[in-house]
Amino acid sequence: EDVLAALYSATSIMSSPFTIHEQNTEISDVAPKIYYWLLDNHRDKTIEFIDSILSNNFLNNLHNDCLSLYPRLVSMDLAFRPAFFYDYADTDELGDIPARMSTADFETCNNFYKDLAEVFSRQITLIAGINNLLKRGDCNQFESSLKHTKKGTRQGLDSLDAFANVDLGNKIDFIDNSFYSIDREAIDNKLRNAIAHYKYDYKESSQCITYYPSKEGMSREKYHETQFMSFIRKSLLLFREVHNVNHIIKATLFLCVLVLKKDI
Question: Could you say which of 37, 89, 187, 188 has the lowest number of CB atoms within 10 Å?
C-alpha cells in the first residue's frame, strides 16, 4: 500500500503541469466506486477477472509500462510547452508553427507518441473488461451486435484475451457505451502505424511531417501531412488519456491489495 501510494504521489507531481486536475480528481473518485458496485452486483465474475489479469501478469506489465512513460515526458517538457496554449485557444488563433524545434526533438517525440499509443492500446483492454462486467456481468462478453459482420463473426470479440490483439483503431469502436469516454482527437492510428514502420519524412524548415500509412509495397504515393505542432498536441492529449486510465489501474491495484488481499 505504501509503495503504491508513493508511486502515485510521484507520478501525480511529475504529470501535474501536463494534465487537467479536474479530470484526475473525477476519475480517481469514480474508479473505486465502479469496483465496489461490481463487487456488490457481479462479485464472482469480478474476482475471476482480477485473478486472470494477475495470473497472466497483464496488470503488472501494464502498470510498469505506464510508469516508464512519465520520466520521458518530463525530459521533453520544453517541446510540449507550446501545446499547453491550445487548452485555452483555438488552433486558428495560435497557428501551427511555434518557435523552431530541432530535428532531434522530432525524433525523440515521434517515438514517444508510438509508445504512448502502444500502452494506451493495452489500457483499452482493461477498459473493455471492466465495461463488459458493468454491462453484461462478464469481462469476456462483448455486445452481441458487434460480433457479427456480413462476412461472419469477429474473432477479436470472442474473449477479452482475443480483444487484446485487435488494432487500436478498432478497439475503441468495439466498446459499447463505455463508462470511460475516450478523447478520439488524441488517436491517429495511421500516424502511429507510419511511425512504427518508419514511413515518414520530416522537413525541419517548415515543421511539416509527411507520413505514408498505406501498404503500397515499395512505393510511397499515398500520404498525409501534419504540422509538428499538431503532432505535439496529439501527443499531449494521448498522454492525458494514458494518465487518466492509470488512475483506473491504481484503483485496480488497491482493490487487489486492500479489499481482495491479493498478492501482486
Answer: 89
pLDDT for 239 equals 95
Extract the C-alpha cell encoding 5: 501510494
Is residue 150's pLDDT more than 80? no
Cβ proximity of 142 and 132 under 8 Å? yes
CA distances from 86 to 96, 182, 241 (A): 10, 19, 16
pLDDT at 246 over 90: yes
Which residue matches cell numbers 501510494? Answer: 5
Average pLDDT (116-141) is: 96
Which residues are CB-contacts of 208 (< 8 A; sequence separation ≥ 6)? 202, 225, 226, 227, 228
What is the band of 101 on the pLDDT scale with cuts at 50, 70, 90? Answer: low
Q: What's the rounded Cα separation, in Å, for the pair 235 and 233?
A: 5
Which three three-digit cell numbers place residue 72?
520521458
Q: What is the pTM of this model?
A: 0.89
DSSP H stretches of helix in 76-213: 77-84, 91-94, 103-136, 144-147, 160-163, 168-171, 189-196
Closest C-alpha to 123, from 243, 255, 3, 258? 243
Tell me the C-alpha distance between 48 and 54, whole Å: 10
